[in-house]
């Protein structure tokens, strides 16, 4: 069984994220997933803005649609982490969606942080990318 690598990438404040950088640091399949994510953002009118955060000492991508934050993106050695935040009001709608049951189960028992409930998705293959699209579509449509 392949050992998971939980090393967060994009830690150099002087090395701004770009397609060239992604191609050099990600394996081919993960690079293709990142391209799909970026293309999905473009076709749905979502803006992805990368910023270096000193507190976390890493670059994070903030995806917004009409000033609303849709999802936060971070790049790791073996996956792309997507961090969604929902409210108690939207939790039932999220749980009605069709996506990975383990993630859904974990989300159903997650306690809010303030008023928001985090749903963290590690995107590493086509199946988890489809889960990402499902959650992003739900979030974008004002739910």
Automatic annotation (TrEMBL):
Pfam families, per the entry: DUF3788 (PF12663)
* InterPro entries found in the cross-reference section: DUF3788
Query: From which domain of life does this come?
Result: Bacteria
Q: Mind telling me what this protein is named?
A: DUF3788 family protein
**Which species?**
Salinimicrobium flavum
């Amino acid at each position: 069984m392949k050992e998971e690598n939980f090393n967060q990438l994009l830690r150099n404040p002087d090395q701004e994220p770009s397609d060239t950088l992604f191609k050099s640091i990600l394996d081919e399949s993960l690079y293709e997933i990142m391209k799909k994510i970026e293309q999905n953002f473009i076709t749905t009118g979502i803006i992805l803005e990368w910023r270096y955060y000193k507190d976390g000492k890493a670059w994070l991508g903030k995806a917004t649609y009409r000033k609303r934050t849709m999802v936060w993106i971070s790049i790791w050695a073996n996956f792309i982490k997507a961090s969604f935040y929902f409210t108690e009001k939207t939790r039932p709608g999220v749980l009605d969606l069709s996506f990975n049951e383990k993630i859904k189960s974990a989300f159903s028992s997650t306690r809010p942080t303030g008023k928001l409930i985090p749903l963290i998705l590690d995107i590493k293959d086509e199946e988890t990318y489809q889960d990402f699209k499902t959650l992003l579509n739900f979030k974008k449509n004002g739910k």
